[in-house]
From TrEMBL:
One of its GO terms (cellular component) is nucleus. Residues 55-85 are annotated as: Disordered. Residues 66-77 have a biased composition (Basic and acidic residues). Its main location: nucleus. InterPro entries: bHLH_AtIBH1-like, IBH1-like, IBH1_N. It comes from Ensete ventricosum (Abyssinian banana). It is found in: Nucleus. This is IBH1-like N-terminal domain-containing protein. GO terms for biological process: regulation of DNA-templated transcription. Residues 15-55 form the IBH1-like N-terminal domain. Keywords: Nucleus, Transcription, Transcription regulation. The keyword Electron transport does not apply.
Amino acid sequence: MDEKHDHRAMFSSERGHDGFVERSRRIKMAAEMGLARSSRGRHWSRALRRRLLRRKGATSGGSCGCKDDSSSSKTVEELGVGENEDDAVEVEARVHALQRLVPGGEELGVERLFEETADYIEALQGQVSAMRALACLLDELERDKRVMSG
């Protein structure tokens, strides 16, 4: 094989990789947008949609259109969670972790954060089920394709 041919094969492979990465990015964005649309009335879905639109450059920023719930909901201390200081610190750390995981969670007080977290987990479970079904379908199509060509 000559050097020129090797270069074309490498370039083609790089373009194939770029195409794969672009398709993967689009699939991820479509899955996340579907997740955001599945629970339109929830704070996390509006926050996720806002983040996705910002990623696409289609928004001018700003709020998700919902009120700030941090002042209207109780804090960890007000809930009386944890008998000692170590327990309270641990609970506070876990609440902060949830606030980072749930889209828009940083804006929520503890009670509302727990409600949004439960709803978000249910939506994620639905998304996982749909992706598993899609993966099974694609596996079957690939298997049928191999059987028909071989």
